[in-house]
Design goal:
Elements lengths: L6 E17 L2 E14 L4 E6 L9 H16 L6 H11 L4 H19 L3 H4 L11 E3 L7 H7 L5 E5 L5 H9 L5 E5 L7 H11 L4 E5 L7 H10 L4 E3 L18 E4 L1 H4 L2 H13 L3 E4 L6 H8 L7 E2 L12 E2 L2 E3 L2 E3 L9 E2 L1
Length: 342
């Protein structure tokens, strides 16, 4: 139990993207996220739930859960993260993003109380690799504008998984020779299609290939990995810590996202498991405000690859947190997450 009385508020915040954000299975121009504010009377801590339709219901369902189980949230332990996460798994099995929001807020409050930034509390560092900037699936006519918007960023992440993938790549390569990373979001359905895809992408200065095939085709993905000249990184296959042992032999790396794994506590577990199973680590995000991006950034020094651009894809971010200078994530020295309202 917490020794001081905590209070919890929440609300839905609509965030709009600069461009329509399209992947192989969906297209959105705005997202509704749920913001949590956890207070002990002296400190104000933040959490964010950015639910993905791929894994759970939307923000209204999260509000219902918060209303129904508020007292259980306020009774969670502040300093025992492991037992807190176990309780979150039991109380909120239907919403990974809500688990993440609550866990983030508790960590933020703890960091503020002890007067340390979370990255320091986690034994991480401020020395981070450059983050990519995502180019969603586009009409070919929009690609030059998107590439121009991405001018400051040296690494681009390209969404594919369409019947005009070649045309997209051709249009991008007509504009830039930057290093590319490709995310298919389960868009290629057969091994033959995926093998052809990896072959031509290997000639396009592509660094790695993320989730080329549906997550339930793990045997096919393992076959593809034997053939692929590019490293394969799991995303939809790499949701929770318990998923990782089953991915050995099918992938070279895994993507950790707070909104899928259930928060910083589980993300730390996934880092440990990745080291054990020799996976390269990528840290990614949904389209999120600076709350979620700042939270994931606290562990970012453990990653070989970063894709923490969800906040810079927004037309307007309602919060101030970590900076992003041309893909360089700038961690703060403030206690906890160091979030401020804009």
């Amino acid at each position: 139990m917490n020794t001081t009385t905590l209070s919890l508020k929440w609300y839905i915040k609509r965030i709009t993207t600069k461009f329509e954000f399209k992947i192989a299975r969906s297209a959105e121009s705005y997202y509704d996220v749920v913001i949590l504010e956890l207070s002990d009377g002296e400190h104000l801590a933040y959490g964010e739930a950015a639910p993905s339709k791929r894994y759970e219901k939307g923000p209204d369902a999260i509000l219902e859960l918060l209303q129904a189980r508020k007292s259980q949230i306020l009774a969670l332990p502040l300093e025992d993260a492991e037992s807190r996460q176990d309780a979150l798994e039991r109380v909120f099995p239907e919403s990974y993003s809500l688990q993440a929001a609550i866990d983030t807020a508790f960590w933020d409050l703890l960091g503020q109380r002890v007067g340390e930034p979370l990255w320091q509390l986690f034994g991480a560092s401020k020395n981070l690799v450059t983050s990519s900037y995502t180019i969603g699936i586009s009409d070919l006519s929009v690609i030059p504008e998107k590439i121009k918007e991405a001018t400051p960023y040296p690494i681009l992440k390209i969404k594919l998984g369409t019947d005009y993938d070649h045309d997209i790549m051709q249009a991008i390569r007509a504009q830039t020779d930057k290093v590319l990373r490709v995310d298919v979001n389960e868009g290629w359905k057969t091994v033959d299609q995926a093998k052809r895809g990896t072959e031509w992408l290997a000639e396009e200065n592509v660094e790695f290939l993320e989730q080329p095939m549906p997550s339930d085709q793990l045997d096919d993905i393992a076959e593809l990995r034997e053939f692929s000249p590019l490293p394969l990184v799991a995303d939809e296959n790499s949701v929770r810590p318990e998923d990782l042992p089953g991915l050995v032999g099918a992938y070279d790396g895994i993507n950790i996202k707070l909104m899928k794994c259930g928060g910083l506590t589980n993300a730390r577990r996934m880092v440990e498991l990745s080291l054990k199973h020799n996976f390269d680590i990528m840290m990614g995000c949904m389209v999120e405000t600076s709350i979620g991006i700042t939270a994931m950034s606290q562990l970012a020094s453990y990653a070989r690859w970063l894709d923490l651009d969800g906040n810079v894809l927004l037309a307007e971010d309602p919060f101030l947190g970590v900076g992003n200078r041309s893909g360089e994530i700038l961690l703060l020295d403030k206690p906890g997450l160091g979030i401020e309202k804009r």
